[in-house]
Design goal:
Blueprint (H helix, E strand, L loop, with lengths): L3 E7 L4 E8 L2 E10 L5 H5 L7 E5 L3 E2 L18 E3 L2 E2 L9 H7 L3 E4 L3 H11 L2 E7 L4 H10 L9 H4 L5 E3 L5 E5 L5 H8 L4 E5 L5 H6 L4 E4 L10 H10 L5 E4 L1 H9 L4 E17 L4 E12 L8 E7 L5 E6 L4 E4 L11 H13 L2
Parallel strand pairs: 3-4, 4-6, 5-7, 6-8, 11-12, 11-13, 13-14, 14-19
Antiparallel strand pairs: 1-2, 1-9, 2-8, 3-9, 10-12, 15-16, 15-17, 17-18, 18-19
Helix pairs in contact: 8-9
Length: about 350
């Protein structure tokens, strides 16, 4: 097998040479790392990674092939993948190499991901460019420095649905604002009987009202939550009319809608091993994927922090009973811990609607 040249350039001038897999080409965006040991295809197809180059800290990916049943979106949403090693003879086919070749995707292996992760933790997330078919590091650095920051791009329209659609259920009617929703969120709502009316990111409040919902749910999504002005405006107008629930960006958008603020984290939380403390003292191990957080001090009177990140004290969820808002920053639908936070969030959500 012929080895494909590959190079990664960071905006600080750092250059990493490796081997390419997939097809020749280039991509540029924010470089982020994920610490989970499995679920690499779930991560690559998560719309929240749109506009980012995803690096896996676990030293081997691809050992069980490409498990399409766990895709969170029909396509790979990350710009590219970086791994220390990919498995060439997986337990099931296709291999990640052949899948990347078939779908014309960009991947890079043979990289000291441990060193690159440490660099990111020290200096924070940086813009990066990955070039396959070349080892010109200076070109990659220039490309990285030219690309927009994650705060300046507007990725949500690229991953949100284009038109409203309906998923029939026998229970409560839930309006869903799709900012780049993961399949598992729709599954978690549906299996509890949710009659789902899914709307694009730019839906207005009157569109939501027209389906006569019992509640409004705001999904995850990529980028800076402040780049979701339509969703913020929609939630703000429906405050007090409907119970509002949100996950990940839904948490941040809800905070902005009630008058709070958000900020960018140094390197974010991405992985399946993030501990959060619930308001009653219980600890849950959660799956997370976000680079922004809610500013606890900015939340208005009546708001209460319900979950806190054990590692750095950041907000992992809040509620405002006066406005009937309940949100979490982590991903309960991803079954971290195992499956505990799915029931904890979604079962409580549907009990509230009885």
């Amino acid at each position: 097998m012929e080895i494909m040249k590959a190079v990664l350039g960071l905006e600080d001038g750092h250059i990493v040479v490796g081997e390419g897999f997939g097809v020749e080409g280039e991509c540029a965006g924010e470089l982020v790392f994920n610490t989970q040991m499995t679920g690499y295809m779930e991560s690559l197809t998560d719309p929240s990674y749109f506009g980012q180059i995803l690096m896996f800290t676990f030293p081997l990916i691809g050992n069980y092939g490409v498990d399409r049943q766990n895709f969170q979106n029909p396509r790979v949403c990350a710009l590219g993948a970086i791994a220390k090693e990919i498995c060439e003879k997986p337990a099931a086919l296709p291999s990640i190499r052949s899948f990347f070749e078939e779908k014309h995707l960009l991947g890079m292996t043979g990289v000291d991901t441990r060193a690159l992760t440490i660099r990111t933790r020290v200096h924070g997330t940086m813009r990066a460019a990955m070039v396959l078919g070349s080892d010109d590091g200076e070109y990659a650095v220039k490309l990285a420095r030219k690309t927009l920051t994650i705060c300046d791009i507007v990725p949500i329209p690229e991953v949100s649905c284009k038109e409203p659609y309906h998923i029939t259920g026998s229970g409560k009617r839930i309006a869903v604002i799709d900012l780049g929703i993961k399949k598992n969120q729709l599954t978690s709502l549906s299996k509890r009987g949710g009659d789902l009316y899914v709307f694009p990111h730019n839906a207005i409040a009157d569109q939501v009202r027209a389906c006569r919902p019992d509640a409004l749910f705001i999904s995850n999504g990529p980028g800076d939550p402040k780049q979701a002005p339509d969703a913020i405006a929609c939630v703000r107008e429906l405050l007090g009319e409907l119970p509002i629930f949100g996950i990940c960006m839904g948490n941040q958008v809800s905070a902005l809608a009630i008058g709070g603020n958000t900020y960018k984290l140094k390197f974010g939380h991405r992985g399946a091993n993030q501990p959060v403390r619930y308001k009653d003292g219980r600890i849950f191990i959660t799956t997370q994927n976000h680079g922004f957080a809610v500013d606890a001090e900015s939340l208005p009177e009546g708001s209460k922090i319900t979950y806190t990140n054990v590692n750095d004290g950041t907000v992992e969820g809040f509620e405002n009973t006066d406005l009937d808002v309940t949100t979490v920053q982590f991903h309960p639908e991803a079954h971290g811990g195992p499956r505990d936070t799915e029931a904890h969030f979604f079962d409580a959500m549907f009990r509230r609607l009885l």
